[in-house]
Design a protein that fits this description.
The protein is α+β, with helices and mostly antiparallel strands. The protein is built from 25 helices and 22 strands. A five-stranded antiparallel beta sheet has the order 2-1-5-4-3. A five-stranded antiparallel beta sheet has the order 7-6-10-9-8. It has a five-stranded antiparallel beta sheet with strand order 12-11-15-14-13. A hairpin with a 6-residue loop joins strand 13 and strand 14. Helix 18 packs antiparallel against helix 19, helix 20 crosses helix 22 and helix 22 packs antiparallel against helix 24. The longest helix has 57 residues. It catalyses: ATP + protein L-histidine = ADP + protein N-phospho-L-histidine. InterPro entries: HATPase_C_sf (IPR036890), HATPase_dom (IPR003594), His_kinase_dom (IPR005467), HisK_dim/P_dom (IPR003661), HisK_dim/P_sf (IPR036097), PAC (IPR001610), PAS (IPR000014), PAS-assoc_C (IPR000700). This is histidine kinase.
Length: 671
């Protein structure tokens, strides 16, 4: 009954004159009887293969159309004749009989194949692979053989091409994965291993779901069925999915899927590419666009874009405010506005034309807005917009409304004029002050000179002998007159310094001689308080360059402070040393010292440590300030170190003079 049904189906195909070529590998499987093969003769002609039906004596019972076409023999030319005599060259018949015998007598299988050189009618030869199917009768005895041949050259060519293709896919830089109809991996190239982290031996045979995040696996279960019937919308298209690596990390993948049918089974091929970098670039591009969009919208400046014809295509809110366009009608009043046609100002038109020629331009002037009746002082910077291909796409303009700035500039100019007038008045007052101080010094010094002179004469006994009491009184008069002179000189120096009019006379000096002179000057005060002076002043110090009078005044002032702020019978140490390119002077005492807070301010003008010190020791707070100014004018430094109750050390550094053959100490110091 089953055989009848098969024959009925074959007859129907034949009656329909079906021209379908069928792969012989898909048709003849398992054991067949001679009767079944003979009844299938019409169907054999539809098979795309070289087919011979032979009996046990190797005589041809039937030949299909494909075999006739390939060999050039018609059915009537070969039937009932030995297929070996017709199709096999004489020199190969013995070998072929042996091959055929070993195949047909193999009891382990009902099918096998061997290679055979088939000779055609025109003398050409076909290298074929002959598959032998043993035909059996109902009692199990062999009744004949079915020979199915395929072109070995073509077959090997296909194999070579497939091998080459697999080699190419294996070396591809993108991941290539094949799977069977059940969704199990059958091919896995090196790029796939690098992409997903599974080696080839780990991946082969595994379900495709191992490279899919869990949330997508259920949807994939019905996907294969859709793909297998060729109706999936994803087949032949490129789309994006999420991949899963062996380590559990996910990443974006671009994938293309294709299907193929081999021997009735569906295979899927997937080509995958990691697009993580591209996605990152896209995200960065989006962030960048959003950032620049925000800058465009939120900028305190007006910004607008125009095309290559000078037509405004886009603007921000501040530009609308600057030009005074009605907010409810921005699109119709600004967008599409042709600046070259409608602007009245020739200068701004010139700037626009310059930008449309690819050259940056600037406009700064009062702008007559065509969108309102406003006249606005603006500064506009125009820049051309050029594509990557070098094509001019238009331009962009940044506009600043400097109405407030202009008003501020006018106010500033007015203030500057007023300030200039006030400055002239101050200069005039300053000149008057200088004249007053100069006159004051003269008026104070004039009576002081005879007082000081006659006091010295009387003190020396030139005007007669003095008793001890008179002698002490004259000494106090002399000291007070000297202090008064220094006070007058200090006030005058401060005044001159502020005006920048100090006139220094720099000459080569021996520092030790200047110090000795200052010590001698303060000798009476030192003696009267019973102080001990300890000196360490080397005579071989290099020369310095300075103003003799001003430097002597500095050292006199410093020594005077030590004398004044050291209790009776104190010790004052004065030393000088050579340190690289400068001299280092130290004046140290064991006096009352200075607190940490006060020492920061002692070189400030008019600064005094405290009221009690002022009352007890006197002073005007100018001495150290003047010392600092003079030392700095000599490119030196001055600073103090002190501990309250233990004493103070004043440090002074002065640069040595550059050596020269003409260097000689001052004549006055030599004397």
């Amino acid at each position: 009954m089953e055989s009848h049904n098969k024959n009925q189906d074959l007859s129907e195909l034949t009656e329909q004159n079906c021209s379908l070529e069928i792969d012989p590998d898909l048709v003849f499987t398992g054991n067949l009887s001679s009767e079944e093969v003979r009844s299938a003769k019409p169907f054999l002609d539809l098979v795309n293969g070289f087919i011979l039906l032979i009996d046990n004596e190797h005589n041809i019972v039937s030949i299909n159309k494909k075999a006739s076409s390939l060999s050039g023999y018609a059915a009537q030319d070969v039937e009932n004749k030995s297929w070996l005599d017709i199709f096999v060259p004489a020199n190969l018949q013995d070998k072929l009989k042996a091959d055929f015998s070993s195949v047909s007598c193999d009891e382990t299988s009902s099918q096998d194949s061997f290679e055979c050189l088939v000779q055609c009618r025109d003398g050409t030869e076909l290298n074929m692979d002959l598959k032998v199917t043993i035909l059996q009768d109902g009692d199990g005895s062999t009744s004949g053989f079915l020979l199915i041949g395929s072109d070995i050259v073509q077959k090997k060519k296909v194999i070579r091409e497939n091998t080459k293709l697999l080699s190419f896919l294996g070396a591809a830089t993108y991941a290539v994965i094949f799977s069977d109809s059940s969704g199990h991996i059958t091919f896995w190239n090196k790029a796939a291993a690098e992409l997903f982290g599974y080696e080839e031996e780990e991946a082969l045979g595994q379900p495709l779901t191992i490279i899919m995040p869990k949330r997508y696996r259920k949807a994939h279960e019905g996907w294969d069925q859709i793909i297998s019937i060729g109706k999936s919308p994803v087949v032949g298209r490129i789309f994006e999915v999420t991949g899963l690596r062996k380590d559990g990390s996910e990443f974006p993948v671009e994938i293309s899927i294709n299907t193929t049918h081999v021997k009735g089974e569906v295979f899927h091929g997937a080509f995958l590419n990691d697009i993580s970098k591209r996605k990152m670039k896209e995200r960065l591009m989006t962030i960048s666009k959003n950032k620049y969009r925000m800058m465009f919208e939120k900028s305190p400046l007006g910004i607008f874009h125009f095309d290559e014809n000078g037509v405004i295509t886009q603007c921000n809110e501040n530009f609308v405010k600057i030009v005074g366009a009605p907010e409810e009608n921005v699109i119709s009043s600004i967008m599409g506005f042709n600046m070259l046609r409608s602007f009245r100002d020739r200068s701004i038109k010139k700037a626009i034309r310059q930008v449309l020629a690819g050259i940056p331009a600037r406009y700064e002037d009062n702008f007559h807005s065509p969108f309102s009746s406003k006249v606005i002082p603006i500064k506009a910077e125009f820049s051309p917009v050029i594509s990557e291909e070098g094509k001019l796409m238009g331009g962009v303009c940044v506009v600043e409304d400097f109405t407030e700035r202009k008003a501020a500039e006018e106010a500033l100019n007015t203030y500057a004029d007023e300030l200039s007038k006030a400055n002239e008045e101050l200069k005039s007052l300053d000149r008057m002050k200088d004249e007053f101080l100069s006159n004051l010094r003269h008026e104070l010094t004039t009576p002081l000179i005879p007082i000081k002179g006659y006091s010295e004469l009387m003190f020396d006994g030139a005007l007669g002998d003095l008793n001890e009491r008179q002698h002490d009184a004259m000494e106090k008069i002399m000291l007070s007159s000297e202090r008064l002179k220094r006070l007058i000189d200090s006030l005058l120096y401060v005044s001159i310094t502020e005006g920048g009019n100090v006139d220094y006379t720099f000459i080569p000096l021996r520092l030790t001689e200047v110090l000795e002179s200052a010590i001698n000057d303060r000798s009476p005060e030192i003696t009267s308080k019973g102080h001990t002076i300890e000196k360490d002043l080397p005579c071989d110090l290099p020369l310095i360059e300075g103003d003799l009078d001003y430097l002597r005044n500095v050292f006199v002032n410093l020594i005077d402070n030590s004398v004044k702020f050291t209790p009776d019978k104190g010790i004052i140490k004065i030393s000088a040393s050579n340190e690289d390119d400068h001299a280092h002077l130290q004046i140290a005492d064991n006096g009352i010292g200075i607190g940490d807070t006060e020492i920061l301010n002692i070189f400030n003008r008019f600064y005094q440590v405290d009221g009690s010190s002022t009352r007890k020791y006197g002073g005007n707070g100018l001495g150290l300030y003047i010392c600092k100014k003079i030392i700095e004018a000599h490119k030196g430094e001055i600073w103090a170190e002190s501990r309250q109750g233990e004493g103070t050390t004043i440090h002074v550094t002065l640069p040595f003079k550059q050596k020269s053959m003409e260097d000689q100490p001052s004549p006055e110091m030599q004397e």
